[in-house]
Amino acid sequence: MTPHGFRYTIASLLDERGLSVETIKYLLGHSSVTNVDLYLRRHKRKIQEIKEELTKIEVELEGSLNKDREVIKSSDRAEFSNQGSNKLKTELPYSEEFILQLSKSNPELLEKLMMDHYHN
Description:
Layout: H1 3-16, H2 21-28, H3 33-39, H4 42-82, H5 96-105, H6 107-119
Keywords: Coiled coil, DNA recombination
Organism: Peribacillus huizhouensis
Domain Tyr recombinase: 1-43
């Protein structure tokens, strides 16, 4: 810690509490608002806020994906038990490369092929 570092900290804390830049400028003894902006760590705070929101979004998406996986697993279990001794179709009659290309060029067609394959 240095006295100069303390100036950054106190200026940022006062700014976060809503004190005007003019008041902070007076406290720091600067004549220009531009000089005071150097002390305020607004960008760091904004980046932290963005990170927090992105983390919340990540958690929400992960939760949604986990729910979808559970629905799919229970659906697969139900389909397996409905078929009795028949095994689920797990192998596709298409190559991985074909599926990847189709997913890029015509995802609707790929979805239809997949649905037909698993429901027949």
